[in-house]
From TrEMBL:
Gene3D superfamilies: Vaccinia Virus protein VP39. It comes from Sphaerotilus microaerophilus. The keyword Signal does not apply. Its EC number is 2.1.1.222, 2.1.1.64. S-adenosyl-L-methionine binds at R36, G56, D77, M122. This is Ubiquinone biosynthesis O-methyltransferase. The gene is ubiG. O-methyltransferase that catalyzes the 2 O-methylation steps in the ubiquinone biosynthetic pathway. Keywords: Methyltransferase, S-adenosyl-L-methionine, Transferase, Ubiquinone, Ubiquinone biosynthesis. CDD domains: AdoMet_MTases. Pathway: Cofactor biosynthesis; ubiquinone biosynthesis. It is an enzyme of class 2 (transferase). Belongs to the methyltransferase superfamily. UbiG/COQ3 family. Signal peptide: none annotated.
Amino acid sequence: MSNVDAQELAKFSDLAHKWWDPDSEFRPLHEINPLRLGWIEQCAGPLTGRRVVDIGCGGGILAESMARQGADVLGIDLAERSLKVAQLHAMEAGVASLRYREIAAEALAVEQPGLFDVVTCMEMMEHVPDPASIVQACATLAKPGGWVFFSTIHRQPKAFLHAILGAEYLLGLLPRGTHEYARFIRPSELARWCRYSGLDLQHTRGMGYNPLTRRYQLNADTSVNYLVACRKAAI
């Protein structure tokens, strides 16, 4: 529990009842989720029958979509209210191959090392004090040959303009204060943590937003939002 920011937990707990409202503060997550899911399957292959853990699952938007693809999914988070919303939505939707637990990534890594075919940690690392610890936990959780996926925000001036000034203050896509610039992560930093954790970086993609069409798309520009696919070495 040391790698947690109480203010960040409180922030997302206060918004927990809005997780599944596509017109709420979580609208961007609903809109980018098909892109995230498609990219995961493009890299790792079909999720049917695969054992998956979603780190920092929040209200379960990505976790539930992976379960709908046939994966056996465990979503974990430390925000109790968000997990309750996720559990209720899964129950109402009749998604059986989906479980949720209130547990830290590091604790789960000690409990269940090397048990997951796919590990996802999306839009989460920029909200914790020690993101390198999360990367190590994700690597530990993955099976040899398993896939690990991250998404986060580049720490450089363009990202400050787009992700904070643009998304939070000008366009109102996110609540003000959602992100803190100092916690953004450079791709070189994430790549270094992955190497130290025994992960081989396979693919990197950027994610952009067009304010005119109001649509997100994956592209080659990693200067703001970006996604990374890694693979744990096979024995």
